[in-house]
Design brief:
Elements (H helix, E strand, L loop, with lengths): L9 H4 L13 E2 L11 H12 L12 H11 L6 E4 L2 H12 L5 E6 L3 H9 L3 E6 L8 H8 L4 E6 L11 H10 L3 E5 L3 H4 L13 E6 L11 E4 L2 H7 L10 H12 L2 H22 L5 E2 L6 E5 L3 H10 L2 E2 L1 E2 L9 E5 L3 H12 L1
Parallel strand pairs: 1-11, 3-4, 3-5, 5-6, 6-7
Antiparallel strand pairs: 2-8, 7-8, 9-10, 10-13, 12-13
Helix pairs in contact: 2-10, 3-10, 4-5, 6-7
The structure holds 4'-deoxy-4'-aminopyridoxal-5'-phosphate.
Length: 349
């Protein structure tokens, strides 16, 4: 056997593995994580939960207790909640369940890269519609593209990497006129406080995504899909058995039930966001964009130079420089006050 590449599924041939470069630096503000680890109290609670786990047994396949906890928090029925190994897995499950048959995955550009990567890996057609000059949806173009074909539209709300929430009216119109599924990915909801959850009853084609990754539990890999029971029933058909391990379930449950840790961290980050915006806008040559998230997109005179100089000073952010809307743009995650100060000082230098 010589040519393994000949055997590869055509849609996978051109793909590249997801790669995050992780230089060894002190201040990591590149991945939209929370800077706050679990409190001592919560760690003790988690340790107690883990002590009583049956490690020899498969986890609860339906994640009943954890789905109950999410449902209670979100004001929906447990049957409307499905859990995934990060919301990445849920994106994959949605496309597996609703894709195929010559349809298309419709996304704005720029947006979270995994919509496109996962869609391509599953052999879907991807249509990207550029955002307008204020990084909002180009509604006529989106509506034109949705066409009569079956489609799955992904809207990151707020949008990664631009940081802003798209216009609510534009999303509503897409929901109304779309022939297909519309996913409103609220990964950064805790920092925007804006949600389409209350609209689930109006739109049978709406799916909401949430994650615990941005509020201090990125290590867990836990995402939630919220939709009508009809939709969760369909997506559940492609879910692998036992996709959420017992430790994941136990830790997430403990964290959700004592939600104050999460709320406290979120509150601090929102305060720091306002402070960072002010400090950044005082720096000459920096243009910042409005953020409803735990990160800020900004433009520098020379993004590559800025990025490398920051790494040299021990600060890692995300360089998004590319031709088009993100020319000379960088994205910085809001960290702790000390981390943010290190970033601002390094940038000033
Ligand atoms: N959606 C958006 C918009 C994101 O930015 C991210 C993380 N970068 C995800 C989903 C994936 O989150 P998770 O860690 O839950 O897979």
């Amino acid at each position: 056997m010589k040519e393994i590449s000949r055997l590869v599924r055509p849609s996978v041939r051109e793909l590249k593995a997801y790669h995050v470069s992780e230089p060894d630096v002190a201040v990591k503000l590149h991945a939209n994580e929370s800077p706050f680890n679990l409190s001592e109290k919560l760690r003790e609670l988690v340790a107690r939960e883990i002590e009583t786990l049956d490690f020899n047994r498969y986890p609860d396949p339906s994640c009943a207790k954890l789905r109950d906890a999410f449902a209670l928090r979100l004001g929906v029925r447990p049957a409307q909640v499905l859990l995934g190994n990060g919301s990445d897995e849920l994106i994959q499950m949605i496309i597996m369940a609703f894709g195929g048959q010559g349809g298309q995955v419709l996304i704005p550009l720029p947006t979270f890269s995994m919509y496109r990567n996962i869609a391509l890996s599953l052999g879907e057609n991807v249509t990207s519609v550029p955002l307008d000059s204020s990084f909002d949806l180009d509604l006529p173009a989106m509506l034109k593209e949705k066409g009569a074909r079956r489609s799955i539209t992904f809207l990151s709300y707020p949008n990664n990497p631009t940081g802003n929430c798209f216009s609510e009216a534009a999303i509503s119109e897409i929901l109304e006129k779309s022939q297909g599924i519309v996913v409103v990915d609220e990964a950064y909801f805790d920092y925007s406080k804006k949600s389409f959850i209350s609209r689930l009853k109006d739109y049978p084609n709406l799916i909401i995504l949430r994650t615990l990754s941005k509020v201090g539990l990125a290590s867990l890999r836990l995402g939630a899909l919220i939709a009508s029971e009809k939709i969760t029933d369909i997506v559940n058909r492609v879910r692998l058995p036992y996709n959420i391990g017992s430790m994941q379930q136990a830790v997430a449950l403990a964290a959700l039930e004592s939600g104050s840790d999460i709320e406290k961290g979120v509150g601090l980050i929102i305060k720091e966001r306002a402070r960072m915006c002010e400090l950044l806008s005082d720096i000459e040559g920096i243009e910042i964009f409005r953020s409803d998230s735990n990160f800020i997109l900004f433009r520098a005179l020379d993004a590559d130079l800025t990025f490398n100089a920051l790494v040299k000073r021990g600060v890692l952010i995300r360089n998004l420089n590319s031709d088009g809307a993100l020319k000379n743009c960088l994205r910085v995650t809001i960290g702790s006050a000390e981390e943010n100060d290190s970033f601002i000082n390094a940038l000033r230098n």
